[in-house]
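Example record for the data management plan.
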Amino acid sequence: MTTADQSQPDRLPRDRATGLGPDDLGTPFLRFERRGPLGYVVVDRPQARNALTSAMYLGVRLAVDLVERDPDLHGLVITGTGDVFVPGGDMTGTHDDATHDALGYMGIDILPFQALRRSRIPVVASVNGLCQGGGLIIAMCADVTVASERAVFRAPETLRGVVDVNLAAMLPVHVGVAMARDMLMTGRRLTAAEAVQAGLIARVCAHDDLEAATLHAAKDLLMAAPDTRSAVKEIMNRRYGPIDEITFAGSLSSPEVVEGFTAFAEKREPTWVPEAFREGKRL
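Corresponding structural encoding:
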């Protein structure tokens, strides 16, 4: 991928609330790159398979604001590095990468999903590999998702004890109730081809063509009249219905989520799995 242009001067003042520079997303694991009229957020945390920390979730949210307020940028692309797009949140508790004080952002308020859904600038998810959990929500919130043929899609939250209300509300709209039940309640994986067939995404390409296909999708989106595009987006987003964030927040402190995260860290099944079905491996 093209490297960021480091020679450009700061175009915007530092944010008074966070103290961040114009292209600083508050964590070393997110790179913001300017490529012509597009801003790219590159998730680059290979030591943790691109798992998102709290600061990284907030950084994606800040990127939406960054692009929307910059007159030289007209679209946002989110992508990953290596063979992983975004596998969801970091379950190890290693969330010490923030380079700013997230003033005013607490708990689930750091999540970028609503910002992506209401964004007036078009958003493209460029899925280069594993896409699950929060990554899957980002892919569904994007206006267009372009996936490499190597991409894999999964929703494993119930295996961890998490009631992910975004997935429960959004996934059935994309793939239908039967497939959504299968994905949400079993952690079933879909290949990129299966994801297109199910209606989860609309575009898949050869892995080596992903960057070009992503740029093509962004250009397609930018052909539409901005106000018209935003109005159509708002109407379609209503199909998701309300997002029960209170239930989600409550599940994050439940005994099941504690056991689910512990089992993940210890690379075993949670204790709720019947003993006869345990194979001594991480779900």
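Summary line stored alongside the record: The chain has eleven helices and ten strands.
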